[in-house]
Amino acid sequence: MTRTLSGSCLCSAVTFEVTGKIDGFFLCHCARCRKDTGSAHASNLFAADATITWLTGGNQVRTFRLPDTRHAKSFCSACGSALPTVETNSVTIPAGSIDGTVAIRPDAHIFGGSRAAWDFDLEEIAVYDGFPGVPSSD
Questions:
Q1: Tens digit of each residue's pLDDT (9 = 90 or more) over 47-75
Q2: What domains sit in the chain, N to C, each tagged with a CATH number?
Q3: Under the phi-then-psi rule, with left for phi > 0, alpha for psi from -120 to 50, and beta for the rest, what region is 79?
Q4: pTM of the entire structure?
């Protein structure tokens, strides 16, 4: 199904729309994606035949390509937020860059063998709506 997703960076300097069929939504645990995100995994949507339109700030998008690999990461040069990476035959869209709700669930965890040693049984730890011990500002 063809869909249009809208997104932006943290500082809102870059805004975009991606139009096309989402082919997959994966949580990647490879060491490179963990370095990219500073987290347990990257959460990316993949679209082979999508088109991206940079609505604002397209000139602030930078792409780092790790030499001699297929690994690339695009980001806002002002705030560092992850942004879609455009390749010759695909677009990789960080799920966290989408504004609003991503209406699909991830298909799978990938590169599970590279998973961080602390990234197991996390559903068993406490969950807070904000910082622990700090009253909500609602």
A1: 998 999 999 999 999 999 999 988 999 99
A2: 2-124 (2.170.150.70)
A3: alpha
A4: 0.88
